[in-house]
Write a structure and sequence with these properties.
Elements: H1 11-28, H2 34-55, H3 59-74, H4 78-85, H5 87-94, E1 116-117, E2 120-122, E3 132-142, E4 152-156, E5 177-181, E6 187-194, E7 198-199, H6 205-213, E8 218-219, E9 222-228, E10 235-241, E11 260-261, E12 264-265, E13 272-275, E14 278-280
Parallel strand pairs: 1-5, 2-6, 3-13, 3-14, 10-11
Antiparallel strand pairs: 3-6, 4-5, 4-9, 7-8, 9-10, 12-13
Length: 283
């Protein structure tokens, strides 16, 4: 029976889930260097001061900004806001010296610990999961061309309604999420569905900013990947689809030409088949 999602995710609910996961990440992650924090905080504030002076910001405008900042925090939408508007530049700087495959943003909907599968896998999905069947194949190798056996290829993506499991109600916990282990030649083969473009949750505070600025809230259809193995730097990426909508106007500014794939009809007539190899830099 074809599934439907009876209750759609809201910006506040999605934001709360993303915020809680981020808090757990920060509690277990590395501690930022105090000198770096002082430098960065000072320069960010200097940049804000410069904008205020150049544009002669008024008190009503300042009060509107304060109200919006407070509302974003109360709604738990800071992960959504920062991942949509800031993370792509952080990723660009963090990976600028890499010689391997291009990466891009992680976004707010990653969940560690997805079910593990051998190199040929079908992601967990509901009976009658809507969407065009997609077979994604590829190889993980080092920059020297050596295939990387037992590399972890974590994959997650939205469903045909643009909703992510664990961030929207009514979806099984690990729907369209998995960790695939490459074979002796570094190969993987993943069966899933091709996701559709979707709007980021936009009825909350972040959405009000988007509407006020006259922007759109759409992301192009994409697959998230996080690839790692011993002795190599992990890579976080997204794969997009040639000819898809919003490739040139992604609200998150995360699309790179190197990440656009062009799946073709599968030989067996069951959906589409695409390929993408991932090259990792040595640690």
């Amino acid at each position: 029976m074809t599934q439907t999602t009876q209750v759609r995710a809201t910006a506040i609910a999605s934001g709360a889930a993303a915020t809680e996961r981020f808090r757990k990440k920060v509690r277990t992650g590395p501690v930022a260097d105090k000198e770096r924090v002082a430098i960065l905080a000072s320069e960010v504030l200097d940049a804000v001061h410069d904008v205020i002076r150049r544009h002669k910001v008024t008190y009503p405008e300042y009060d509107a900004l304060k109200a919006w900042l407070i509302e974003v925090g109360n709604n738990g939408e800071w992960p959504l806001c920062l991942d949509a508007f800031v993370e792509h530049v952080v990723e660009e700087v963090a990976t600028e010296n890499r010689k391997g495959s291009k990466g891009t943003i992680e976004g707010p909907f990653y969940v560690h610990g997805s079910p593990v599968f051998r190199s040929e896998a079908t992601l967990p999905m509901r009976d009658g999961e809507r969407g065009t069947p997609l077979l994604l194949e590829g190889q993980v190798r080092s920059v020297d061309g050596k295939p990387l056996h037992a590399a972890q290829v974590e994959i997650w993506h939205a469903d045909a309604d643009g909703l992510y499991s664990q961030f929207a109600p009514g979806i099984p916990e690990w729907n369209l999420r998995g960790t695939v282990i490459t074979d002796a030649e570094g190969n993987f083969s993943i069966r899933t569905i091709q996701p559709a473009p979707y709007q980021i949750p936009h009825e909350g505070s972040v959405g009000r900013l988007i509407a006020a600025a006259g922007w759109h809230a759409w992301r192009p259809a994409h697959l998230h990947l996080k690839v790692s193995t011993e002795g190599h730097l992990p890579i976080t990426s997204q794969l997009y689809f040639r000819g898809g909508e919003y490739l040139d106007s992604d609200i998150a500014s995360a699309v790179k030409p190197e990440l656009v794939i062009d799946p073709h009809p599968a030989a067996d007539g069951e959906g589409k088949r695409g390929r993408y190899d991932l090259v990792l830099d040595p640690a």
